[in-house]
Amino acid sequence: MSAGGSTGGSRRGPRGAFGGARRKPWASGARGLQGVLAEWERSGVFRNVALDHTAPPRPAKTAPIPEALPEGVRQALTAKGVEELYAHQARALELGRAGRSFVVATPTASGKSLCYNLPILETLAAEPDARALYLFPTKALARDQEEALKALLREAGLPHGAITFDGDTPGDARRVAKERSGVLLSNPDMLHAGILPHHTGWARFFANLRYVVLDELHTYRGVFGSHLANVVRRLKRIAAFHGASPTFVGASATIGNPGEHAERILGEPVEVLAESGAPTGPRRVLVYNPPVVNEDLGIRASYLKTAVRLTADLVKAGVPTLVFGQSRNGVEVMLKYLRDRLRGEPGLGDEAIHAYRGGYLPKQRRAIEASLRSGDIRCVVATNALELGIDIGSLDAVVCAGYPGTLAGTWQRFGRAGRRESPSLGVLVTSSAPLDQYVAREPGRLVDAPVEEARIDPDNVEILVQHLKCAAFELPFEEGDRFGDLPVESLEEALGFLTHHGVVHPTAGADGRQVWHWATDAYPANGVSLRSVGWDNFVIIDLDTDQTIAEMDWRSTHTMLHEQAIYQHAAEQYQVERLDYENHKAYVRRVKPDYYTTAMTHTKVTVLEEDQGAVLPLQKPLAVGLGEVTVVSKVVGYKKIKFHTHENVGYGDVHLPEMQMHTTAFWLTFPEALIQSFALREGVQRAAVVDALRGLLDAMHVLAAMGLMVDPRDLGKTLEDQQDPAAGRGPGAEAARGFDATLFLYDRVPGGIGLAPRIFDEREALLRRTRASIQGCDCGSGCPACIGPDVGVDMEGMRSVPRKALVLRLLDAVGLPQVH
Ligand SMILES: [Zn+2]
Description:
The chain is built from 25 helices and 32 strands. It is an alpha/beta fold.
């Protein structure tokens, strides 16, 4: 395309990449969203648009405020400007009054919080001693809601306070929280380790507990969700002990299975409120696929730079815009480019454009949120930290640089744009990555396909046993007791296991029933972390000022804070001079490099135990397996990437400990004899065949993630080949797999969440779909959208057969036929 007039070749960016200086800046006439869209039409931006879809506006569906609502609560609504309720809010009130648990799964900005606040306010007005517990996945969200809730209680004339109880709550406030507060805001981790084990001190709170609210329910997936479900089992048990049976209310962003997910977490039936009665304006959604700039390698123009240009157009035209990047590095790079580009525009100095991401300290985040609401900030570049419902006021446009990995995630991001009935815009700029290109090829899926489901496994034995210990510490188990919806046999089996290990001690109770008492001195909750990534962050200290500038979680530290890494923060660059791994401190110094760094990770999968094996019924039988594996990841080095050109300008080594995880994997083995004879027949080296297998794995990984409707980042992939010099030589792997090249797809959360077994069940269909997808790709010899580009291994004999042809011929050779 020729985005700005001139079409001739320039020094960089052949064939009119959407980037570089050739595009004319906007005439000052283009104001507002419609102006930008019209200008994009004129200048040819739409030539690269794969999807242009407008979701029609939706009128409000309302219901009158019920007469029976207490006067104070009515006044609080009036003070907020609420004159009638949306239909889903009215239904929520009815359900709450009937004591029925429910989950609200309506879009962003549809008045979800009123769905739980309203029945709770009504209850508090009628019963002064009533209590409610609100749980949020992060401390920041709880603090955010505390203010709003306090105001609401005040306006309703209710004496009940609202207080956040987390690790930062001071001692005297803790006493108030326990004894007097009507609404307690906290997080699952605090409930688990700070409240439930001390429930006797909270007797009054639990005895009067009428409601439990679980906000952002969609974030409790995988291991975290499985833990939460067990914390809820413990909570119900403690509440019952104190004589209460609270109503549970969940609130979730769009996911495919809100009801099922809520029922798994709560262990009881819930009603789903999925239809929003809130009005929305027309939402236009564009998928922009940057043009191919290198036909041979299938490389497209930079999606980051494209996202920056589109955003700059919007911001210059006065459209408040939110930009989402895929990683912290991506966010910082875009922030720098945007500031560079917009500097000098009236009102668009550096202060008008900010980044917002997880690593920022709370007070930096609060300041950014406030400036966004006040309009001093015109553009925010964010990671998914903003997906959580933090209050940032209204924005008109959202630009996603790269596909967020799931349809649900994409709509959650687009949902940040749009105020009431005014039009809004969501733009997805696709990268060259396979999944992005899959979306660009079939963009209709964005609108039509079902969104992903959230999955948990509360009965995962590893997790369950930990919580049974905590539960036994909190209250002895008696024969016939239940633990949520866990089958009685499983409960008794687990208690038998704990008895055997001396953790609980069975005795005969007064009425002859068996009672299991906690039998050790240790205090179990402290040893159990609800999140696979610990809370214990690393702090980042600026050596020049001796100030802490940010924090980072343990896992990210490995890739972002190794020594010599360029750590980017608020568009400044720092170099990590020293990483004190023991004490969780990284010492950095301000630098002005012309590059940033990205880490290179080596992953090794070792089979511990095969649970199931099978043979694919093809002409050349291929063995597949399902079982437990260890995944060891280690950051081995880093690359220096030059700003703007994104050239690779150097490498360095990294020496950090390994990260280890036990999980479940699916594997597919190609026998050495097959590889050898195929290489011979094709006249290529063995390495070329293994390289083709890597391409096959890349394609299988994407297709598996799509088929499972999960974020591909939840599914790990690796190829183990004992003859590959890049691979390690774990004794377990050799014993189990011999020397045969093996493709692994594994659950990327410790213990697994059931992805690998589903791949095992669908193995044949998956392989056939993979073949169809590779064959159907438009490229010649392989591209990032299918099996990766045909580069990377320069060995003699490699070039005789292009990579893609080799993959397809290999599939022919095993008898996986061509698809017509
Ligand atoms: Zn391709």
